């Protein structure tokens, strides 16, 4: 298995007590027996998850490290190794299903279709599919792409938005699929495609990094709840992850994490995102609930 990075959590098992079933499910049993939690992440998706100077960091990574610490307490382990596996969007669900990872901590949208294949934790961000273009080319959104080439990342909701438009006869573009956002944006910079559709939270950092050569066109095309994802076949793992996330939310940690990753300069970058906390997400932080509506295409 291509583990890239590892760290150990060695925390006192005393501060938080959860009601927990005696018999662990298959994934939780594997975590307990190996004393290892394997996390899947996206290598170039700042600020959600990315690599910087040999470390895996990001907003989702910080959240999941806290989840790992609380799982360690739940399982009464003296230590818990956290290993990281880089994945593409298309690889994430198969990696959960075949046991390559235990938890995916990236920018995955909690959709009804995905809930048939995997389980989700609490929402930690609301994204929206958006279109990134080269500045000054007169493209204001999907409606201006007739006869042009539109890039999407395989297995993403951005690809689904495009395919919905195509089925409705509102297309006229040539669709080019890429394995990851970085490759799609590089094609845009090189003039090989005319636009990229992807979650805005992945595109905003790349637009800032371009020095205004790349800009987001138009308004978001969807409302998408992002959350950590894990296997469906382990009710005890779901119980543990949800209990840990509720604890983190109720303790007020999420506001501090949000400020670090969305309001301050990004580690390893020369800019910040200056994205204010939305009322919808703030309500999630104050009143954590596992209830989620399906993502909405606008």
UniProtKB/TrEMBL annotation:
One of its GO terms (cellular component) is outer membrane-bounded periplasmic space. SUPFAM superfamilies: Periplasmic binding protein-like II (SSF53850). Residues 36-265 form the Solute-binding protein family 3/N-terminal domain. Keywords: Signal, Transport. SMART domains: PBPb. InterPro entries: Bact_solute-bind_prot3 (IPR051455), Solute-binding_3/MltF_N (IPR001638). Signal peptide: none annotated. Belongs to the bacterial solute-binding protein 3 family. This is Amino acid ABC transporter substrate-binding protein. It comes from Ottowia oryzae.
């Amino acid at each position: 298995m291509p583990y890239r990075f590892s760290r150990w959590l060695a925390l006192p098992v005393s501060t938080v007590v959860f009601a927990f079933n005696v018999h662990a499910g298959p994934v939780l049993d594997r975590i307990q027996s190996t004393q290892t939690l394997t996390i899947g992440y996206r290598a170039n998706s700042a600020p959600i998850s990315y690599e910087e100077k040999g470390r895996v960091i990001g907003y989702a990574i910080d959240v999941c490290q806290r989840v790992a610490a609380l799982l360690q307490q739940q399982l009464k382990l003296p230590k818990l190794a956290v290993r990281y596996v880089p994945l593409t969007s298309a690889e994430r669900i198969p990696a959960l299903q075949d046991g390559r990872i235990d938890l995916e901590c990236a920018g995955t949208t909690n959709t009804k279709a995905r809930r048939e294949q995997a389980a989700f934790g609490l929402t930690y961000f609301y994204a929206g599919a958006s279109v990134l273009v080269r500045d000054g080319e007169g493209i204001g959104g999907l409606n201006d792409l007739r006869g042009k080439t539109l890039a999407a990342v395989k297995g993403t909701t951005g690809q689904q938005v495009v395919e919905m438009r195509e089925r409705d006869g509102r297309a006229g573009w040539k669709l080019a699929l890429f394995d990851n956002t970085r490759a799609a944006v590089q094609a845009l910079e090189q003039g090989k495609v005319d636009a990229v559709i992807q979650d805005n939270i992945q595109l905003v950092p790349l637009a800032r990094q371009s020095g205004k050569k790349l800009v987001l066109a138009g308004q978001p095309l969807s409302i998408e709840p992002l959350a950590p994802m894990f296997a469906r076949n382990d009710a005890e793992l779901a119980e543990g992850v949800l209990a840990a996330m509720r604890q983190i939310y109720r303790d007020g940690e999420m506001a501090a994490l949000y400020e670090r990753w969305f309001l301050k300069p990004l580690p390893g970058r020369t800019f910040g995102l200056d994205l204010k906390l939305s009322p919808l997400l703030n309500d999630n932080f104050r009143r954590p609930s596992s209830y989620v509506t399906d993502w909405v295409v606008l």
